[in-house]
Amino acid sequence: xxxxxxxxxxxxxxxxxxxxAYFLLLLTSQTSFFSWSHFTNQLSQNDLQSAxxxxxxxxxxxxxxxxxxxxxxxxxxxRIHFPGKRFVDTFIDLPMVLTPIALGTLILMSWNTSVxxxxxxxxxxxxxxxxxxxxAQFTVIVAISIRMxxxxxxxxxxxxxxxxxxxxxxxxxxxxxxxxxxxKRGILAAIILTWARAIGEFGATVMVAGTAKGQTATLxxxxxxxxxxxxxxxAVTLVTILIAISLLVLFGVRKALELRI
Length: 261
What we know:
Blueprint: H1 2-28, H2 36-43, H3 46-79, H4 85-91, H5 94-97, H6 100-110, H7 114-121, H8 130-154, H9 158-166, H10 171-182, H11 184-199, H12 203-209, H13 219-228, H14 232-258
Helix pairs in contact: 2-14, 3-8, 3-11, 6-12, 8-11, 8-12, 9-10, 11-14, 13-14
């Protein structure tokens, strides 16, 4: 029996080790192209600094908007019964199934509708602007935010909210003073992962905002431009920055889930 248990554990660990080794191979594949002097030189270039600043700004704004929409939406799906709930719950997952390029195409096409032309008449022109980047990122990440937060709210026992109501809290008071504090870790993790997904968004952003250097080029689109021009030093620098951000995000999520808040 002990021998069989050992074989079973090894059979489970082998794919994990294989996958870990593969990811390490991917991360270390750029070491032969990396040069500290090239890295510092690239960091001093205006277009790269602009791409970093734009990515951080757009990801932050789109994440804030997504969370403002996602928190009440997720709570409604987790707690409130309404006609068509199953349809809505399925329909909002569409951005998670469609490719980002398809989503970007739909956003551009929507600006040729009567609604889009009306907004353009009021001076709201999103395609090929920073606002377009934010809209594209929001479209990609909002469904992910809702799905994560819905799972968080569903893990909270509704009886705790009911007790708060019996003690005199309003529905909003129960949500504010009972549900939100209990969901803090899940909300924090959702914010971090949503922001990370936004900063790594490429397909929809390129379709909606383009890749103009110093104007609408984000970190992912700058990597694409660098590789298309065979500029390996710049591509390696940008990839290194994204890897560093990704690792910080992953550690941040782990820390957020471990915190007792």
